[in-house]
Design a protein that fits this description.
- Helices cover 29% and strands 29% of the residues.
- It has 8 helices and 14 strands.
- Strands 1, 2, 3, 4, 5, 6, 7, 8, 9, 10, 11, 12, 13 and 14 form a 14-stranded mixed β-sheet that branches.
């Protein structure tokens, strides 16, 4: 217990204005579970406001996206940062547990999804779990592309947003959580920095029927957002969008499709995917 108490003292709650962003990014990039969505530049757009838990001199970090509240510390992951958590190396159960304890003690409300590397058997009965899906990219050869659809490569971000806002869509996220301004900004940031891939599928009448947005995240790509116009074409359109990404993505990587509580979960399970578990931290 003495070791755990020492670790607790070394984990600090830090307001955003006091975070050393350079040291933060170095820690994330050197982490075993490094993720582009945990880098400061991405967080600044995807979360607007965030605080942090920091172990020692940036040995491990945990981003805390704020929900607007003047009086309380309310934190939640959102559709642009679907999985966060503790980033570092050699994070054992005791260290991770102390991060969670301090997180809860400093927060009023929490709705926070952890990444798959923050998974410990000791928490099996203590925290609710979600199932995520990862698509292994074995080869770019023999990719089937349906002749019913085609890809428009020069579509603007505003056209994407108009499609999403003006239609009743089936998405990998709850559309109640969709924020058009945040999406527009993260699209611009990701494409400008060479980490974003946006695809729009058109039918033969030149109507948009689906979109998908991926980001390049070190050793894997991540599906951030996908939306299809109609439920009866969701599987074939998403496969078309995914296969178009496979044509240009890096060889021998995986694509993290994340988890979904919408119809997309059924689509993910139909693909060549590996399931994985993540934890959810709730505090009301």
């Amino acid at each position: 217990m003495g070791v755990i108490n020492i670790i607790c003292v070394l984990i600090k709650f830090v307001k955003y204005k006091n975070v050393d962003l350079k040291a933060w990014d170095i820690c994330v990039k050197n982490s075993i579970n490094k993720d582009v969505t945990a880098l400061s530049g991405y967080l600044d757009i995807a979360c607007k406001k965030w605080d942090a838990l920091i172990l020692d001199d940036y040995k491990a970090v945990m981003p805390l996206p704020r929900i607007n509240s003047v009086l309380f510390n309310n934190y939640a992951t959102n559709f642009l940062v679907p999985q966060l958590g503790v980033f570092g190396n050699g994070i054992n159960y005791n260290v991770f547990s102390d991060f969670i304890k301090l997180f809860k003690s400093k927060s009023h409300k929490i709705n926070y999804n952890l990444n798959k590397y923050n998974y410990y058997n000791q928490f099996t009965n203590a925290l609710p779990k979600s199932i995520g899906y990862e698509f292994d990219v074995y080869s770019k050869e023999n990719i089937y592309l349906s002749s019913k659809y085609f890809i428009e490569k020069r579509i603007s971000n505003n056209e994407i947003i108009r499609f999403v806002e003006n239609a009743k869509l089936i998405s990998n996220i709850s559309m109640l959580n969709f924020d058009a301004d945040m999406m527009r900004q993260i699209l611009a940031y990701s494409i400008r920095n060479g980490i974003g891939y946006m695809y729009a599928a058109y039918d033969r009448c030149n109507n948009i029927v689906g979109v998908a947005f991926f980001v390049k995240s070190f050793s894997k790509d991540k599906l951030i957002f996908a939306a299809i116009k109609e439920k009866n074409i969701i599987k074939e359109v998403f496969e078309f969008l995914l296969n178009n990404h496979l044509k240009i993505c890096r060889h021998s990587i995986s694509i993290d499709l994340g988890f979904s509580d919408t119809y997309f979960a059924n689509v993910f399970r139909c693909l060549n995917v590996k399931p994985y578990f993540t934890y959810l931290i709730n505090k009301n």
